[in-house]
Amino acid sequence: MGSFAGGGLPPDDVVVPALRAGDEAMFAALLDTWSGGLLRVARSYVSTDHSAQEVVQDTWLAVIGGIDYFEGRSSVKTWVYRILVNTAKKRGARESRTLPWSDFEQDGRAAGLGEVPPGGWKEVPAAWPTPEGEALASEVRGLIAEALAGLPPRQRIVITLRDVEGCTSDEVCAILEISEANQRVLLHRARVAVRGRLADYFESVKQPE
Amino acid sequence: MKRFTCDELVEVITAYLEDALDQTARDGVQAHLACCEGCERYVEQLRTTISVLGDPPPEKLQADVYDRLMSAFREGQRS
Question: What are the sequence ranges of the domains in chain B?
Answer without folding.
Answer: 6-78
